[in-house]
């Protein structure tokens, strides 16, 4: 799925963050703080602090583990929503209404995809040497 303006409009305001399309070798930035755990003194075993990976940390995707691409119905929903948004105002009334009906029929597939599907995870090696495995794509963005 390309990053067309129509797809972004159809998906809502968080489209870029939610569906950035992770790929091996891609540079990414963390958008949230990630708690890694307590830092423990190796000799005494005393807690020396708390370790976290800060939002804004950048790294490279080493591996992507994700679901299959979106279904035909989801792709069709995005395509038709784009057509409606871009050209609906120029269409004859009957054609526009038919297109709106097709979009309504596909909307449950789109809603289900947003809620349950389309989420990939990644193994990211950050520039500071930390590796985060199983990171959902929703916590990563383009730098």
How would you sum up this structure, described in words?
- By secondary structure, this protein is an alpha+beta fold.
- 36% of the residues lie in helices and 28% in strands.
- The chain contains four helices and seven strands.
- It has helices at residues 5-11, 15-18, 72-87, 93-116, and strands spanning 27-30, 34-40, 47-53, 58-65, 121-126, 131-136, 140-141.
- A five-stranded antiparallel sheet has the order 6-5-4-1-7. Strands 2-3 form a two-stranded antiparallel ribbon.
- Strand 5 and strand 6 form a beta hairpin.
- The chain is elongated.
- The relative contact order is 0.24.
- Mean pLDDT is 81; it is low at 1-19.
Please state the average pLDDT score: 81
Q: Major sheet: order of its strands?
A: 6-5-4-1-7
Our measurement of the CA-to-CA distance between the termini, rounded to an integer number of angstroms, reads 21 Å
Strand content: 25-35%
What is the SS-derived class? alpha+beta
Helix content: 25-40%
Number of strands: 7
Shape: elongated
Largest sheet: 5 strands, antiparallel
Number of helices: 4
Please trace the helix and strand order, writing H or E for each element.
HHEEEEHHEEE
**Which segments are poorly predicted (pLDDT under 50) over 5 or more consecutive residues?**
1-19
Which value, in Å, is the CA radius of gyration?
20 Å
Topology:
Elements lengths: L4 H7 L3 H4 L8 E4 L3 E7 L6 E7 L4 E8 L6 H16 L5 H24 L4 E6 L4 E6 L3 E2 L2
Antiparallel strand pairs: 1-4, 1-7, 2-3, 4-5, 5-6
Helix pairs in contact: 1-3, 3-4
Short characterization:
The protein has 143 residues and is α+β, with helices and mostly antiparallel strands. The protein is 36% helix and 28% strand.
């Amino acid at each position: 799925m390309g990053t067309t303006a129509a797809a972004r409009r159809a998906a809502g305001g968080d489209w870029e963050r939610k569906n950035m399309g992770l790929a091996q070798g891609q540079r990414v930035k963390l958008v949230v703080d990630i708690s890694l755990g307590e830092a423990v003194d190796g000799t005494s075993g005393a807690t020396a602090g708390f370790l976290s990976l800060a939002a804004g940390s950048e790294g490279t995707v080493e591996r992507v583990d994700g679901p299959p691409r979106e279904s035909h119905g989801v792709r069709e929903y995005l395509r038709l929503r784009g057509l409606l948004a871009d050209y609906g105002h120029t269409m004859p009334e009957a054609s526009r209404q038919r297109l709106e009906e097709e979009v309504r029929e596909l909307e449950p597939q789109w809603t289900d995809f947003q809620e349950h599907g389309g989420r990939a995870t990644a193994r990211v090696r950050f520039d500071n040497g930390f590796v985060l495995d199983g990171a959902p794509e929703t916590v990563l963005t383009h730098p």
